[in-house]
Amino acid sequence: MANYVVGHKIPDSDSICGAIALAYLKNQIGEEVIPARLGELSPETQFILDKFGFEAPLLKTSYAGDGVYIVDHSDIALAPDDIDQATILGIIDHHKLGDLTTSTPLECWIRPVGCSNTIIKMMYDFHQVAIPKNIAGIMLCAILSDTVIFKSPTCTTADIKCVEALAEIAGIDDYKALGMEMFLVKSAVEGTPVRDLILRDFKDFNMNGHKVGIGQLEVVDLSVFDDIKADLLTDLAQLKAEGQRHSILLLLTDIMKEGSELLIISDDESLAEKAFGVKTLDNKAWLDGVLSRKKQVVPPLQSVFSE
Ligand code: MG
Ligand code: MG
Ligand code: MG
Predict the structure, then answer these.
(1) Considering every ligand atom, which ligand is closest to the CA of 11?
(2) Domain 3-184, CATH class in plain words
(3) What CA dihedral angle connects 87, 90, 95 and 98, to 10 degrees?
(4) 129-161 b/e with 16+ CB inside 10 Å = b?
(5) Distance CA 298, CA 50 (A)
(6) What does the alpha-carbon distance between residue 16 and residue 96 come to, in Å, rounded to a whole number?
(7) Most CB atoms closer than 10 Å: which of 51, 82, 116, 235?
(8) pLDDT at position 290, please?
(9) What is the Å distance from ligand 1's center to 203 Cα?
(10) Ligand 1 centre from 293 Cα, in Å?
(11) Domain extents in the chain
């Protein structure tokens, strides 16, 4: 029995950097906690860890009998499979409240901000623990990633202030340039199998009893997908069937044009129209201004399914 901090399945930079940052804080205040992860690192996260000199957290998928701090979600579907046999010590998150429950009291830090690492910075301030330079660096990168360098509608003043404070600690003058460097790493999709691309940032949601999978790829120029869009659609159909999903969506997000091309395969042909008010052509549609899955894609879908 040990205590861990772990983010969601198919971990993103927020989940990984958050696990490292929160584990350090907990250890500083006398709680032995080990940072862990539920899956492979994305190229973006690998870039961040390399840049600030961190090893990947421990790859660990089973937590039966352990204590766990959950970061960056509160959903059973995104948690370790045996989470019901673990003791949830705390939840640190910035998403809608999920369906994880506990049988013992827990620590909860849930705020409507752009990134879990913004909340973790609040926790450092609360406990008056100094953030080491390299941890400030990875926390800053996680916030720039989640908020799409402040362009996402999920970004709040708290996130911006937090990045400014972390940049000061980390000694980074031009953090926006670092953010762009990170998104360029993210945009290098050439040579990657389409299945890997679809699953790179993919989440399944339970929408009123229907399984809906939503992936997102954020790039600086959508032309990187020109040659593979047909293959992406074919594989989306395959993945939908494999997981018995009602619908599967892939958002190809252009962070410069600030919108997303939606690829969608659904049992309901008019789902995109009902949710987003757009007609699809060949299973595709442009969603102008849509950058955030959490804030702009999940809620309208959820209301269609709850009608
Ligand atoms: Mg996340
Ligand atoms: Mg996050
Ligand atoms: Mg994201």
Answers:
(1) 1
(2) alpha beta
(3) 30
(4) eebeebbbbbbbbbbbbbbbbbebebbbebbee
(5) 32
(6) 20
(7) 116
(8) 98
(9) 9
(10) 11
(11) 3-184, 194-306
Q: What is the pLDDT of residue 307?
A: 79
State which CATH number among 3.30.110.30, 3.10.310.20, 3.40.50.300, 3.20.20.10 fits the domain covering 194-306: 3.10.310.20
**Length of the chain counted residue by residue:** 307
201 C-alpha to ligand 1 centroid (Å) = 8
Residues 229/251, Cβ–Cβ less than 8 Å: no
Residues linked to residue 262 through DSSP beta bridges, in sequence order: 251, 285
Residues of the chain predicted below pLDDT 50: none
How far is Cα 256 from Cα 116, in angstroms, rounded to an integer? 24
- Ligand closest to CA 147: 3
Report pLDDT for 37. 98
Distance 155 CA to ligand 1 centre (A): 14
Measure 9 CA to ligand 1 centroid, in angstroms. Answer: 9
Please tell me the distance between residue 72's alpha carbon and the centre of ligand 1 in angstroms: 5
pLDDT at 20: 98
Distance 1 CA to ligand 3 centre (A): 32
For the residues of 204-249, what is the DSSP string, one character each?
EEEETTEEEEEEEEEES-GGGGTTTHHHHHHHHHHHHHHTT-SEEE
For 141, half-sphere exposure in the C-beta direction (CA atoms, 13 angstrom radius) is: 31
How many angstroms separate the alpha carbon of residue 145 from the centre of ligand 3? 7
